[in-house]
């Protein structure tokens, strides 16, 4: 099951249906964007089998050059996404989709294909997939972040960023 209301942070048990949902959404996006999308990847915690996650599907779309993100905008809007112009993630153009205006089910991050964000996010995902101890440590970090910030996604993300950065630096 996907969906998390705005201003709520919580982790749920891994749902094997997330993999199928990603495949369906990847097809929709790929059909809409064509060759503009060099690659479309499932990343974030819902991409890690067995790991607790916020029930929001994170999707990474690689474009080259990054300026081609503009060519994605209209197609993603037509697929039901909205553009988060002020999301505050450098090098990311973020689009969200939800069941209504109060709940998020999908987040798309358009980044430069094979750029730093593309490579580091996928390396982090793959490290979590390989290493159960790293997975457990990350879940503990996320639970602490939620305890400190149960309502602000921005603060939640900031609280866990040091952990993410330290893992990425070691990869």
Automatic annotation (TrEMBL):
Pfam families: GrpB. It comes from the Bacteria. InterPro entries: GrpB/CoaE, NT_sf. This is GrpB family protein. It comes from Agrobacterium vitis. The lineage of its organism: Bacteria, Pseudomonadati, Pseudomonadota, Alphaproteobacteria, Hyphomicrobiales.
């Amino acid at each position: 099951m996907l969906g998390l209301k705005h201003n709520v942070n919580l982790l749920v048990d891994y749902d094997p249906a997330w993999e199928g949902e990603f495949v369906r959404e990847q097809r929709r996006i790929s059909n809409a964007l064509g060759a503009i999308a060099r690659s479309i990847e499932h990343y974030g915690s819902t991409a890690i089998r067995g790991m607790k996650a916020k029930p929001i599907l994170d999707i990474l779309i690689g474009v080259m050059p990054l300026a081609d993100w503009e060519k994605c905008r209209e197609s993603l809007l037509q697929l039901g996404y909205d553009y988060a112009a002020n999301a505050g993630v450098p090098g990311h153009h973020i689009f969200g989709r939800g069941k209504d205006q109060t709940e998020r089910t999908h987040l798309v991050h358009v980044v430069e294909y094979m750029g730093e964000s593309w490579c580091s996010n996928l390396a982090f995902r793959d490290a979590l997939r390989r290493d159960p101890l790293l997975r457990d440590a990350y879940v503990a970090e996320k639970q602490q972040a939620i305890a400190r910030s149960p309502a602000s996604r921005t603060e939640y993300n900031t609280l866990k960023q040091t952990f993410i950065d330290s893992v990425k630096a070691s990869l």
